[in-house]
## 1
Amino acid sequence: MTTLLLVYSAVLLLSVLVSNLANRTILSTAVIFLVAGFLCGSGVSGLIPLEPGDSIVATLAELALFSVLFTDGMRVGWSDLRSAWRLPGRALLLGLPLTLVLTAAFAHWVAGLDWIESLLIGAVLAPTDPVFAAALVGNDKVPARLRHLLNVESGVNDGLALPFVLIFLTLASGSPDLHLGALAGELAIGLLIGVAVPWIAIRLEATRLFSASARYQPLNALAIGLLVLGLALVTGGNLYLAAFAAGITIATCGPRQRQAFEEFGELIAELLKLAALLVFGALISPAFLSEIPLGGWIFAVLALVVARPVALALSFLGSGLNAREQVAAAWFGPKGFAAVVYGLLVLDSQIPAAGSVFHLVAVTIVLSILAHSSTDVLVARWFDEPDETPRWHETGDTAPAPPREPDPERPDSPS
């Protein structure tokens, strides 16, 4: 634990020092933490001797995913969805299920897994992450509808994929009938906590008796999130659905609390996400990668370059997006950070095929992080020039001569 903290602190400082460079080049903070974890893991240097069953792995994954879903939910209140739902709605209601099904089909036909495990992989790899498209989302030259699409989709699809992950994970266990009943109870309790706690807290602050000072205002949403986490742990409610529901409730009922917490909350979530990436990288070793068969590598490539592009191409038929916008949207996914933690949950679940599923998930996520987080700047620069017909001097053709103005002194002058 001490060594893990030391390595994390050193890598975090390095990432901060090169963050300005990373914003302008293909260098990526996510890649730095992933590679650092790989080099410090037990399979290489042994500085971070973590094993999949270590409690720190499950605890860190749990906290990281809770914070990500909480901030994701806060990013998209109901008013945001109502104001511009058409394109994100296509990506979420059509693109997400199609991506899940196509990924599952590749896992079944190429990697040779059973359908339940294949559908589980599809659900784990379906979410996207705005961090891996940060340069695109933050570039004002990128069309606003594309930036809004990527931001809303990545903020919502983590929560939408979660029930599918839990259901398929339950079906892959030994006694699904018994577990499905317990899962339904967990989801219901989590949803209730996630809606009730922030709603009551925001209503209390609106009374004359309670009022948060300007200094403590950013801690308001943090306190709500911690209370939701504690109640979910005590009651057995689903932590992740509670976090997502709480974020949406705050964004819907407390825009002031949302605004005060936004920057602070993003930093907290980022710290936990980077820590989980470091741990994830430490679990991957040369021996781990050598255990993945050729079919697994082919599956990972198909999941990256075929599943989501085909799913979004079908989803955006007749949407009005031009080809450049569709290509950019299709490229940034999979895989979101939630997929990293969902993969760790599968590994910790001890289902019979946990090892095989995690190997496929891990190699896909590694390739995705290397590819997507290193190309966001390049794709963003693609939008620096307007999408228009090339000028004559850019094509090398000879420009046509301008028409002659009529000369009133010459009767044969063109008119």
## 2
Amino acid sequence: MDKLASGCLRHRAPSSKPYTPFQRSPSLLAPAAGRGRSRGRSVSIVVRCVLGARPGTATTTELKGRDDGIGGSFDFERYMSVRAAAVHDALDRALPLGLPERLYESMRYSVLAGGKRVRPVLAVAACELVGCDSAAATPVACAVEMIHTMSLIHDDMPCMDDDSLRRGRPSNHVAFGEFTALLAGDALLALAFEHMARGCAELGVPAERTLRAVAELGSAAGTGGVAAGQVADKANEGLPVSLAMLEYIHVHKTARLLEAAAVSGAIIGGGDDAEIESVRRYARCIGLLFQVVDDVLDMTSTSEQLGKTAGKDVEADKATYPKLLGVDQARAYAAELLTMAEAELEGFDADRAAPLRHLARFIAYRQH
């Protein structure tokens, strides 16, 4: 297990900051000893909430509570709700109806279908972590969600996973037909980079930061990420798969885009190289954590609970962490990844790190 858990570090970019080995945590409910700050310290966390704000709306939300560094009463549910709603509004404005109307309807059908918005919120939180206002991350947050939505549309198609249900309703290709769904995904990928370039310029983000973030997201969407992971995933269906290959698939297919979301947010926010690499390692671990939890839920939950077809991986004879490790060991690996992710936040301001710390735990504990 230690070799597997440390594997997520093999794929990261070089960093000037050495990594401190993680401590084994026996379960998702038992954080590693010594990780949290003293309990009971009251703080007032002021979160800038200008992401996608409309004229005349409030731009600052006070989220007050007791931050114990692990569970605390930091209002993470409210933080996620405010951020997700703001991202949704920004996406709605970024993608008005146009011609050809059916193509736009197909794009909006999936982009505005809801979801947890983990990736765009991750971009915003990383931007705030390095001390920048969340408004700067608006174009990045939208671009990440467009790329993610593209991957979901394509992933559901008959030539891929052939899934007819997504977020509790018909998949895009079921609702609009295969060729429209395919082109909607392509159009969203192109729009992501156009919107990001134009939006960052309008907000006055330095061009060199925008260019670096564009390169990061481009790599994550293509041969350095989602596309490579998807090819490896399909090529290995029904074949004996090692833990190393399984990790390669999920690092690229799932973790890489989560990583790029956080890294791009930190870049746009003006983080230095050491800060960006800490964010990268944090996000790589929670990206793998997301997939491990997803694998466990696919095996242990119903379609109604998940909002998508449960048991598809088992039916397709895909390699998953529960299949190779067993459910209990997969959960133990998830706990190790959570501990590793939290360790990367220790060098940052505790108040600004609170959303990312809680986001890691949200991913670990999610039920769908």
## 3
Amino acid sequence: MKWFAPIPLSIKLPLLAATMMVLVGTVASHQVLQSLAQVQDARIRELARMHVEGLSVALGPLVLRRDIWEVYDTLDRASQGVGGRRMVLTAVADERGKILAATDPRRVPMDSDIAALADDAVALDNLTVDGASPVLSLLAPLTYQGRIVGQIATELDVADLLSERRKALLFLILGNAIATGLLSVAGFFAIRKMLQPITTLARQMTETKGEPHPIPISDIPRGDGELARLARTYNSMVGAVLAKAEAERRLAERERFVALGRLSSSLAHEINNPLGGLLNATDTIRSYPDRPEVVRKSADLIDRGLRHLRDVTRATLDQNRIDPEARALTPDDFEDIKLLIQPEISRLALDLEWSVEPTSVTECSLSAGPVRQIALNLLLNACSAAGQNGCVRLMALTRNGNLTLQIMNTGAAMPQAALDRLLEDGPLLPGGGVGLRLVRDLITKLGGAISHSHENGVTCVAVSLPISWESADAEE
């Protein structure tokens, strides 16, 4: 039945209904034919019994007297009657089994043994129209006044009964075929109509391309039946999923803006300090234009300040470029991340430990944008958790074909709400951490894994990413 499983339900149920109709028609036809056979058997037995009993009454005295001519005359008159037309042959024998007379003397001569006719003969109670032969043979005792005085052998023509049975079978087959065909077609369309909500539901669930759509109100059955409730429940689930996705999108957007706000404020502070120095240098040049050594030192200070501003601006642009996934990850991306979090490190007087293996990063074919976003968000949270005068550490290396990022910080353990955002896919609760759900979504998209531990006052978040996103996708 494996071939039957892939068939759609809208085809499978009508086929099952048609099969049941055929089975019911077959059983009904068998019962009709069996009843017809029983009626025919009863008719032929009754006719044979009347024939034998009538001959017994008429032939009993003649057989005892061995009046052969009278026996023959009686048989001849009996064969001319209405019932006798079915009797193809009738022969009468005495007690010794010797033929006294027969309706066909040429075939059954006088004084021949009746046993020659008894080879295929059956008793009266066993007489049945079995369809094997159009002629039935009957052998019955000839009884007169309670005494068996001879035997009667009779052959009955049942060709008309067999023809009647064949016609009944033909009519049943044609009638059942027509009725089954009409009912099957009607049942097919009726069941297809009843299963239309299921078909619509399956189409909505399989052809949405990742975004579920509700079933139109016009396609929902009327009333409060099971299919109507199923369609309404599905629409409710779709609404809940869409609402959840929208809430997560707004929350992720809010977290992104929070992270950008914190980063922007730190960068503004980082840019403002060099600007003050640059303005002082320009004032010095204006004040001492005639002192070349002062002008040279001020120009060097201006050059260093402008280069620092250029690096900060470039790192910020790379972090927020429109197509962040178009460029492969390089060691310079980690230098940009270090530069971006430096204001936060300075503001909180944190001790930063930075360990990046350039060779490991160069071997990766990961997109720069997602990796930068993951590292920056985790580092911002680590800085916030470490607090004033804490310690933050980043390690980047390759292990077993994966790029491993380890972000560690001292301070309190990560709250449960933040852990839920970072490690689980369930609904988002108030609280948590900046960008943690975004981090999890990015890691999942890259086919990676994330783990968390807190021991001896140190929190460690480890991210493992396949060094080639294309190969990871092929393995899946």
## 4
Amino acid sequence: MKRLFKRKRFWVILALLAFVYLNNSSLLVQPPDDKPWLMAHRGLGQTFHMEGLTNDTCTAERIYPPEHPYLENTLPSMRAAFAAGADMVELDVHITKDNQFAVFHDWTLDCRTNGTGVTRDHTLAELKKLDIGYGYTADGGKTFPFRGKGVGLMPSLDEVLSAFPDRSLLIHVKSNDPDEGTKLAQRLASLPADRLHLITVYGGNEPIAALEKQLPQLRTMSVDSMKACLLPYIAIGWTGIVPEACKHTQLQIPENVAPWLWGWPHRFLSRMDQVDTRTILVIDGGGFSSGFDTAEDLKRLPDGYSGGIWTNRIDRIAPLINRE
């Protein structure tokens, strides 16, 4: 009797393991015909070397020799990104002193512009007078190739929404101020439902939580929302069940974490698609703006990958993806 019980337990365990494998292995799934979709980080801008990079580093002072004339987070850079093949453009916003939203990356003005102080302490009109190309240099300050060319190029969020009425945008709230989330929700609430569907907002936990309360139909993402989705998924995803927190959101998955997700890549992407959630693959968590920027980076993608790709060099990556 004891031997029979052990034999039954063995077959039950074996059946369970077989179920887990068959329910999550992408080896048994025909890869989709779709190509990866491309998310252009800050549009098409100048890139920089990342050796010794910290949160306080002025990246405008370490750009590579310019290969194109565009500055990040500007209307020309976004147009260039879409023209190059971007499916979505990411942009950064700050609330201004007069309660508008300026599109600019840095918390302070001193690195990139000829202004000083905290970005949000200025009115939009004051910010528009600045030269946002003032601080860029590729040779340690010997030359400044964009100085004088960035005057008036800092756009407002309203200008971006007007310029790209039917394109997908990823808006990054740079603060952790809940009031900023509330004000952004009030601005976006005036948009029609079909336009709102093309917009995703991510950022600090507090502004995103405040925005979700005001505008629950908007797709959002924060560290808290990522944890709320992925931790339960890691626990129960082997069953094929997708947690409620994973529905209608966005996931920015580090490439070193992705292989540990149940069903990665094809079953996982299919499950997220079925609950209206977008998945973007980033390099090593996306720290310090890292993205899939070279042909070598693309070689690390899973065969048949059809999710999103985070890139700083849409001009390089789009032709390679479209050539496949």
